[in-house]
Specification:
- The chain is built from 14 helices and no strands.
- By secondary structure, the protein is mainly α.
- It has one domain.
- Helix 13 crosses helix 14.
- The two termini are 52 Å apart.
Length: 301
């Protein structure tokens, strides 16, 4: 088809407004999937808070839906594990000797440590479990380990209530004290530590999935070295080894929780210092490592 330009058409084109030059600043544009600056990344993470809360609630609601007892297993699992430790270590091996109210001592230790074990392992595996979301949507990837930790914090709420009821119901009965309120900042610092450690391990587990299995094994070693079913001061005579126990943030979580709930003792300032430094130091390091690897999480493997 041949289009001929008539004088009328030429006049119609020339009567329009003159073309304008639009200046567009492309200096702040980024390719899709690139890592933003850390401060901007934190702003984006805060903007994802509604997604984090929704995802945490969904994860919590479906976590035990395939079982008959449902969320009761959040309490039954550590309670049954505690019964096993009580029979083997407390009665057969005598680790309860010299420990006041050993049953409460054991229950508090297991229920508090299981929270960290569950949250750290799940947070480290968050990139693999959330692969579909990562490849389908654009959002700060740190929202996934955060969502998992929020879910586990919600789950721990049921466990804490059950733990307090057990401390009140199982002889010898412990009196209610204002120190029980100190459990709130202890759990808050523990949660920050869990999130930071999960982010620290997530890039490595993403690259080498076998590390996830090794991490589960490492958490068992961590559990046995945190004084779950024994008082380290009864078995450790070298002060240098005792310093290693006291530098262990999860040992401090257990020790401080027991002091507040069972023994009516206010944790000392140096214990708070160890836990605060470990929690925020691990979180800052974990966030930086996780952010540095942000661009690798959507890679096909």
């Amino acid at each position: 088809m041949i289009v001929r330009q008539t004088p009328e058409r030429a006049e119609w084109f020339s009567s329009g407004p003159p073309p304008r030059t639009v200046v567009f600043d492309s200096s702040r544009l980024q390719a899709v999937g690139t890592r933003p600056p850390l401060t901007e990344y934190l702003v984006q993470l805060w903007g994802s808070r509604h997604f984090v809360l929704y995802d945490a609630r969904v994860r919590l609601s479906v976590s035990q839906e395939h079982t008959m007892l449902g969320k009761a297993w959040l309490v039954l699992n550590p309670a049954l594990l505690g019964l096993t430790f009580l029979l083997i270590f407390g009665l057969l091996l005598g680790t309860r000797d010299g420990v006041e109210n050993f049953i409460a001592f054991l229950l508090v230790g297991i229920m508090m440590f299981t929270y960290s074990s569950r949250a750290i392992v799940a947070g480290a595996r968050s990139m693999a479990s959330g692969r579909a979301l990562i490849r389908g949507f654009s959002f700060p990837r740190a929202a996934l380990p955060l969502s998992i930790n929020v879910r586990d914090l919600m789950s721990q709420g049921f466990v804490l209530v059950a733990m307090i009821v057990m401390v009140l119901a199982i002889p010898p009965l412990e009196p209610i004290s204002w120190r029980w309120l100190l459990l709130i900042p202890i759990v808050a610092l523990q949660t920050i530590f869990n999130w930071g450690f999960g982010m620290l391990m997530a890039p490595l587990v993403h690259r080498i999935p076998d590390v996830g299995n090794l991490l589960s094994f490492a958490m068992r070693i961590w559990m046995y070295s945190s004084g779950i079913f024994y008082d380290p001061s009864r078995f450790v005579t070298d002060e240098r080894w005792m310093l290693l126990f006291e530098a262990n943030p999860l040992y401090q979580v257990l020790s401080m929780s027991r002091d507040c709930l069972i023994y009516g003792i206010t944790p000392e300032w140096w214990q708070w210092t160890v836990l605060v430094v470990a929690a925020f130091g691990t979180w800052l390091l974990g966030l930086w490592v996780f952010w540095r690897n942000e661009e690798s999480y959507a890679n096909e493997r």
